[in-house]
Amino acid sequence: MSEHHPFRDASYLLSVHTPRQLPTDDGLEVAISGRSNAGKSSAINRICEQNALARTSKTPGRTQQLVYFQLAASRYLVDLPGYGYAKVPPELRDHWRGLIEGYFQSRRALAGLVVVMDIRHPLREYDLQMLGFAEARGLPAHVLLTKADKLGREAQAKTLRQVRSELSDRQTAQLFSAPSGIGVDEARRRLAGWLQLRMPASPGAEGQ
Ligand code: GDP
Questions:
Q1: Which of 8, 24, 112, 202 has a 20 to 30 Å separation from 47 between CA atoms?
Q2: Is 205 within a domain?
Q3: What is the CATH number of the domain that holds 22?
């Protein structure tokens, strides 16, 4: 029951507003993005088994920062800012785009991107933009189709197939649900692989 996995050790490290504040670029990190309300904070909290690691409540100021969580020495999860609701002033959007684009272009530690999508509204413009940033750099990306508990099994499988059919060779997708735990182990294994962190063997884990 109490198997130890590295995500349990996650702790808040710092919030980055400008590239100068980034931690030394000598480790491995996975960036996690998602439209506002997609379920990103809930996914991070569930993966790390911590109720309040990523904030599930939104404040506008947080849309412009990258939040670093440390898992081990030089191993990080990076909560990327989404630009949330539709009414974002153009200058804020430009700043956001510059920050994220620069991060994707120059961050050597970046090993992969997770895009969290509400399974009922996958592959929206923001999601495609994030996947595009990763693709431009040749980085692998993994889609969490979260809130899978909101759909029946058939609809889950159908959406998963559809989304997979639209992804590139470097991109993968899975079902996920924070409250029900669907796909949590699978997500941890994907992230641990990118971060070169060891996971405990678990019964039934095929390590895909
Ligand atoms: P964020 O804005 O992407 O960080 O989204 P949150 O994690 O704050 O979640 C937005 C809303 O969706 C909250 O009311 C959550 O309780 C709910 N939610 C998040 N994940 C799931 C899930 O897997 N299943 C269900 N049913 N609700 C979820």
A1: 24
A2: no
A3: 3.40.50.300
